[in-house]
Amino acid sequence: MTELRRGTIAFCVLALLDERERYAVELVDALTGNHALAAGTGTIYPLLSRLREEKLVASTWQESPAGPPRRYYRLTASGRRSLEAFRGEWEQFRDAVDQLLTQGAS
Amino acid sequence: MPTPDTLIAHYLDRLRLASADLPAGSRAELMQDIGAHLAEKVDAAASEVQVRRVLDELGTPEEIVAVAADQSGARSSASAGGGLAYDVATVLVLLLGGFVIPLLGWIGGMAMLWNGPRWDARHKWAGTLIWPGAIILTLVVLTADHRTSGRLGLVVVTGLAVVVAGLVVGFVYLLRAARSHR
Q1: Contact across the interface for A41 and B74, Cβ inside 8 Å
Q2: What is the pTM of this model?
Q3: Closest residue of A to B35, CA-based?
Q4: ipTM for the predicted complex
Q5: What does the DSSP 8-state code read for residue A57?
Q6: B33 and A32 in contact by Cβ < 8 A?
């Protein structure tokens, strides 16, 4: 289950960044807020590093109104393409799994 | 009773230890990100309980490093072909470059070593010190030989054998270290 979570969480991050740019703690709060990300929120950071390395997101350090500087993340063009591709695949996959699960339950 | 500051310092120490085997760049980035996260989540007035909660939410340093190792493994396997060639070339230039172009060849090897993405600071220092170490040891052997001039051959032969073995071990160590990060 953790594998499935981790694989999909990257796309949840991309989807959140599709709305607007955010800094890491905002991403963590949004993901834990709807229980997409369970315990071990620190694991989001290696994930963000990979997304940046793969040029799916870009980041810049910005001053915060109060407190330490923040690294803001935003979606790149290839990040947006990757997110779109995932949206299509996810819908098909979700429907297929739902169908099998409800068959099994009845 | 631990203060919030010591709790955080202790956590970051554990993270630094746990991440020793990550590629140097990933490790520095992770330390920076977690540091920024804690600075954001913990303000000066935070109580011990609040700090403990923030640290619990983050997960253990070991858990975070395990994911980081996974991710950087996935990343570097994509460029494994170029990686192997670079690592072997670096070790060869470092080992033999000085014979082709005295001193400059070795300096070139050093530049490749310090730019290598698959060695951390420990490996880079080890690689840097291999030749100076070998040269110093050789000098020691030769001067020792001077003093014990009676049994000339034996000291030189064993001494130089130790130097050559040390060189081989050192360079094999560098290659293995690089392989574990490919």
Answers
A1: no
A2: 0.60
A3: A68
A4: 0.85
A5: E
A6: no
